[in-house]
Amino acid sequence: MPAPKNRQNKRSNALVITEALLIAYTTYIASFFLTYLDIMAAPKVETLIVNVMLITGSALICSLSVGLYEAKLRETFRGIIRRIFVSFALTYFIVEVTTGAFFSTLNMHPYYLPSAISISIVTLVFFRYFTNRLGLLGLGRTRIIVLGAGERASIIEKRMRRDVDRLGFELVGFVPIPGDNREAGIVNEKIIHVKVDERFRTFMIENDIEEIVIACDQRRGTLPVEVLFDCRLRGIEVTDLLDFMERETGQIVVNLMYPSWVIYSNGFHSQNYLRDALDYSLNALMAFCVLFFVWPFMLITALIIYFDDGRRTGTSVLYRQERVGLNGKLFSIMKFRSMRPDAEKDGAKWATKNDSRVTRIGAFIRKYRIDELPQLFNVFKGEMSFIGPRPERPEFVEQLVKEVPYYNQRHNVKPGLAGWAQLNYPYGASVEDSLEKLKFDLYYVKHQSLLLDMLILVRTVEVVLFGKGR
After folding, report:
1. Which tens digit of pLDDT belongs to each residue from 247-301?
2. What pTM, to 2 d.p., does this model score?
3. Which residues are in the Bacterial sugar transferase domain (predicted)?
4. Which end of the chain has fewer CB atoms within 10 angstroms, the N or the C?
């Protein structure tokens, strides 16, 4: 029986492989038709193969950068089409620069690249349409059953209501367990009244159950350990609710955490030697590369802020603010000023959506994260990394530590310019929002790795391109 680990990524993997084959085939077809119509001479086989591989590889990377392979992409079909166009526009640029400036021997006929890109776009639009419409690539979903129908189990009903949240599994139903708080429990989901005893195994076999999620409110004296033991020996996965939610949602449900789960669960490892040793060097190198390309935008932004209200008020275009960094150490963060000079005359306040304190220029630079660019200098100083939880103000941290459990644990890693929470929960302006973002921050602390950092870095391009910043 297949194990459920990483099952939520299976659909994305199948999508990547299928679309890679489609793109490779359509780029070959473009060459075939142009040759058949005598528009271009037949290219060398080696040149054609390299071009096909270059276009395919670039298209996959660009599609990843705009979020097209996100397992739970929250987007309409029109939005998916827009992302496909953006990804192939980036692909066109990359291939054109690569073949034109660096490898001129790979140059094909001027009509080849536009033709290949156009055919690929049309093909992927139709493919995505039928994939979404017919539910393709969703085959082989894990059939799961949840032991418990009380308050803890209801987190699944509340957090995973939509079909997109359940792409990796098929929820057969919830089995009430003695001790469950049914008043605060499952409301709209299917309740299965089956006794969890020796006959439970027969029920599991008849319904092809592949995984049991433990979500009962009271475990002591109510959890059928012998039955679960028997199921586990027969290949049925038994998963704790916290592990299930972490795997399927990419977050840790902080309000359900308990100390023994943290002690015995995988993750929360310290950085490996290579990542730790090269931490500053890699971050400084990336900061230099980004600064090399964005300094003109930074200069233009500074001039616009100055002429907008800086010259009149005598206020600096840069804004310095104290934030909490690694291990609780305070540092001064730098940003382009996006609010009025008197924005905090009454003390520190949470930033809100459509905040009246934000200037006209500030609304634009906040939307596209331009106001964050001066933090590259914080990276040079070693106070921040490219990837990590966003640093918070000490006034708010003092409040959040008291009201949000485990909040201080996010300071176990260096704060960053971009983070896992920003990709999954882009807006936060209250204690409740901070709790939601902490669930993703702790997931990052638990699973921090070079691979995860690269994923966050690439997907941050999506935030910038589509203006999803706050």
Report:
1. 888 889 888 888 778 877 777 765 555 666 678 888 999 899 999 989 999 999 9
2. 0.71
3. 283-465
4. N
Contact between residue 253 and residue 155 where contact means Cβ atoms under 8 Å apart: yes
**Sign of torsion over alpha carbons 18, 21, 24, 28:** negative
Tell me which residue of 13, 70, 55 sits closest to 458, measured CA to CA. Answer: 70
Spatial CB neighbours of 92, under 8 Å, sequence gap ≥ 6: 113, 114, 117
Report, in this order, helix, strand and coil percent for the chain, each rounded to 5: 55, 10, 35
> For residue 286, how many other CB atoms are within 10 A of its CB?
17
What distance separates the 2 farthest-apart alpha carbons in the chain?
A: 80
Residues 121-159: tens digit of each pLDDT: 999 999 988 776 665 665 446 889 999 999 999 999 998
42 CB burial (10 A radius; 0-12, 13-18, 19+): exposed
SS3 96: helix
Our measurement of the distance from residue 431's CA atom to the centroid of its chain's CA atoms, rounded to an integer in Å, reads: 22
Structural domain boundaries in the chain: 7-134, 142-249, 273-465
Taking a C-beta distance cutoff of 8 angstroms, is the pair 216, 223 a contact? Answer: yes
CA nearest 179: which of 145, 229, 220? 220
